[in-house]
Amino acid sequence: MLKLERRPAPSKVMTIASPLIAALAMLLTGIVIFTLLGKDPQQAFYVFFIKPLQTMYGFGELLLKATPLLLCALGLALGFRSNVWNIGAEGQLTIGAITGGGVALWLGDSTTAWGLPLMLAAGALGGMTWAAIPAYLRNRFNTSEILVSLMLVYIAQLLLSYLVHGPWRDPQGYNFPQSKAFGDAFLIPLLMDGTRTNWGFILALILALASWSFSRWTYAGYRMQVAGHAPAAAAYAGYSNKGNVWMALMISGAMAGLAGICEVAGPIGQLQAEISPGYGFAAIIVAWIGRLHPLGIVLGSLLMSLLYLGGESAQMQMALPSAITGLFQGLLLFYLLAADLFIQFRIKSIKPARTPEARSVATEAA
Amino acid sequence: MSLSSPILPIVASTVAAATPLIYAALGETVVEKAGVLNLGIEGMMLVGAVAGFAVDLASGSATLGFIAAAVAGIALSLIFGFLTLNLQTNQVATGLALTLFGIGLSAFAGHDLAGTPIRGLKGIKIPFLSDIPVIGDLLFHYDIMVYLSIVLFLAVNWFLTKSHAGLKMRAIGESPTVAHTIGHPVIRTRYLAVMFGGATAGIAGAYLSMVQTPMWMEGMTAGKGWIALALVVFGTWKPLRVVCGAYLFGGVTVLQLYAQGFGFGIPSELLSMLPYAATIVVLVIICRDPKTILLNKPVSLGVSFHPDV
Question: What is the C-alpha to C-alpha distance for residues A310 and A49, in angstroms, rounded to an integer?
């Protein structure tokens, strides 16, 4: 008979090991899925995880796709740590792209050096404004920020679709739902020749460092952590819960807005009806797999980016639908949540104890 | 008939839009009454939609399609149940994971099915009743799933308010510790509730792909699972209000479609925002008074419980 037993203290080893176990379990499941689909698992593994990274261009793509994931996840993690569940990063990303893209379209062919900073600021502000809605409604009317921020995703996407089909459509664009291409002053400069990676990735890394310092060194960051770990203690200490909600949503909204800019002022270069393959949602997984810690999130965003690249690669090379990426993303989060059990608990058994690995693989069966 | 001619199609499409919401929201009401918050409805609906559609397409039987959808929904809900009930993972995070997984799984499984049309379900004219002028056309010509949604409502309402088992389940939702102490099987009851929610969510999704559209499209639920979650709050966890809320939302959706049809010069994208905006407004109205929520929300909603630890 197996029995769970609470550990005297959370296991530090498991905190770090759990994402690795989850990634491994996902990989094993992937092999099973590939085999069931009649594909050679070894080749599938190669196509999915190795091939995308073999060229400099591919490596650049890894960093490029990691950028919006990293930006969104950093903001979300701050919120998750303080019990604020912003799951509408996708919407804030979209609004950021609209407001920032609006600046670029408005200034048109201007070559001002202020173009890009202005655009980034507008994007961050746009995402922040969009996130302010669930923050205000939760503080004022007790509505769930989960549902409100999620509804706002659909509204944001419809707004973007309206703009590129209507007022912002490029008159010379053969009726395609897209805006004019942004001027050169409104494109983020490339980081490496021969790739599409831009300085957005460096910006994201700097913000990861900033986010770490914020949590580690500032009083505001400390208050947010207390609010997450021990809400009662936070209330007793007189920390404002409303302030916490505002802070979490404003920061994550701004970061998601920046992610939107990095997409439209980066690889896309204009506004179009679809600007993100769900980066805002995948960032939720990135935040968890990265242990809500900036360093972990950097690694998590690279892994998630690889899953996107692998999906594309599998689609081209093996005629598998690229939706397999979404499948892997979901599996990864399931395994992670299951493996996380062993941070707080251990298994006690009269029979020889099963290892956490065995247990987390057993989730597959369910 | 002068009265029924404009109203009839509006009522009919309102009912069609509301029916999947009724299934999903009633299921989630039961789940939440047992103290479990499953945010994975959207994912279970999508998987139900693709499973139902695929089986209907292959077998030509809508009945088998809906059964497959319910089974698929249950299968997904069991993952959620195992994680949250046995392994005590965070219910919010696990529910989100279920939705993300469902989106990916359904898109993957339904990749080759996209765009294929199927027959859909025909309306059933109920003998005699459907011959009544006006009312007959208005109320008695729907497909079987619409009538079953009413049966489901009556059953859930009876279960929650009148039955012994329902009372025990509600006790578990309020205080699992107390319920466990007096000998009620908390985990087993919650499992059954979660599975019920999975089945109804699967059916709700299948109604979209097999009756409403009827075809499969990636991400075709377009947030309806989340709207169903909001409906449970809107209905303050009471089946009758949840169903009324679903019809209200069906009405908003249809109104928006008709407004698009008539033009009015409002772009269709802006009108399509209406159901989502309405969800937010409705949540604000209901949650405005904290007492409403405190008095109605199951006290232990979203809190993990395990008898061993």
Answer: 6
